[in-house]
Design goal:
Length: 130
């Protein structure tokens, strides 16, 4: 189970903005593996996991968008009921708090990737290997 790089960015909160972001990344052949989008305090906020984080940051910078990069734990699970519960229970039993999470492509049939923000991704991944 690997760590993944998550890119976070504040963008305008207006119709078409997610399309603009996706089109800009697609034009540079950056594949979006997972994303979450929200509106906070009247601004758009995105979190993305992509296959080429450095290229994605350059795309965002060229458009004037500030980004941050964080490590998140990527946990590949079966795409079936109860999978998230098993992961959350295992982390909770070891005192690891999940701050937030979202789902994305595992690029394998019948599988999904959970991207989990925790204080120590390496410790979370180690806990789930047991």
């Amino acid at each position: 189970m690997p760590k993944a790089k998550q890119i976070s960015a504040w963008v305008e909160n207006r119709p078409g903005m997610l399309g603009r972001v996706a089109d800009a990344l697609g034009a540079k052949r950056v594949d979006i593996r997972a994303f979450m989008a929200a509106s906070l305090d009247g601004k758009g906020f995105l979190r993305l996991v992509v296959d080429k984080p450095a290229q994605a940051r350059r795309v965002f910078a060229s458009l004037g968008w500030q980004t941050t990069v964080d490590d998140v734990a990527e946990v590949v699970v079966a795409d079936r009921p109860g999978a998230l519960g098993r992961v959350a229970d295992a982390l909770g039993a070891r005192g690891i708090n999940i701050h937030y999470g979202y789902l994305g492509s595992a690029r394998r049939a019948g599988k999904a990737s959970l991207f989990l923000a925790v204080d120590d991704p390496a410790a979370a991944l180690k806990a789930l290997r047991k």
